Amino acid sequence: MVLHFPGFEQLDAPRHRVRYERAMQMTAKLWDLSAEVGVLREDGHCPYFDIETAGGKASEEAGWRTASRFFLLDHDRIVSQLAKRPLLMRLARGLRSAAIVISEGGAFGYFRHAWRFGLFFVFPFLLVVLGLAISLALATYPLWLGVSAWHYPFGIALGIAFFLKLFLPFSERYFTLHLFSDWELAVAVARMDEAWMRDWVEASARAARPAFDEDADEYVITSHSMGSSMAVHTIGLLLEREPDLFVGKRVTFVTLGGAILQCALLRSATTLRSRVGAIARSRDVAFVEVQCLTDIISFYKSSVTALTGHSDAPSPRLIFLRIRNMLEPERYRRIKRDFLRVHRQYVLGSDRRTNFDFGLMTAGPWPAGFFADIAPGRRLDDVLAGDSRAA
User: Fold this and answer.
1) What whole-number distance in Å separates Cα of residue 274 and Cα of residue 42?
2) Under a CB-based contact definition with an 8 Å cutoff, are residues 49 and 40 in contact?
3) How many angstroms separate the CA atoms of 27 and 353, rounded?
């Protein structure tokens, strides 16, 4: 059973399924296995699809077959609602969120523990402030040129035109407004003071709960980017209500490019930090984080448990990726300067065999924790070739 919490993207469940199927086709070709991704079903509490994979030799002794059910707990509706609001509201709310992050110590924490994430935080806001400053300068050019006040209407029109027609299209190359909404959600996730945020967590917990009544060898909770904080709230809430929910089950909690600290470092994120501790301290949950040095939207080598006030709890086991090694050189050259595209690679298909594959983790023959046993720089097939017991 896989429960997946996607990141901050405007993708609904059908499109997430299409993405997964495309990635799984690459996985099947890369690892010489067969894979069939079923249709999306929404006849229960949560959208899901089934996956069947098989590999090995024809004989039953050497071959393997795995059946997985993949539940999608996306927050596309929230992302879409944030994106539909008027421009001025999006700008104002985004700048307000930046001020909250700074005032609550988040920005200081980012630069202290992951300076590149700190740059990721300030970049969209500095870009917009620069655009507004240029627009203001254009609108007030009669003042600083000392010309007639009759020029003011033209200056104001010029400033507005620059911002709307030139600056905004340029800034969207860097997903500026999207990031403004992302930070607004980050503040809501930290504070839990918005009714729509609490409603989403409640609905997500109700949707996820039946999956743990299904019979399975393993229950894998995967989360990407902002989805990691959403997953912490959801699974943490379930543990608060049913502390023994996972007893007797093999449960693995995996964050992909996990950015839990994006929200958890804000002083107001007391509930989020408490739920991180509940997951980390659960004897029945294996906590794994997948990280990459070249992914700036992550806290590389930071201990999420220690930084959320749970130094006495076990730290997550870490899987380190090199995205350069996962892709063909030409493909990597095309994406390496697109920080959001690099950040998505955790859940996409690979061109090369390395120490990690999302498709294998969620639908392959090995438990999710197996990937944490592979030393950085070693390929999965090298490990299997050297130890037949691992296969």
Assistant:
1) 32
2) yes
3) 9
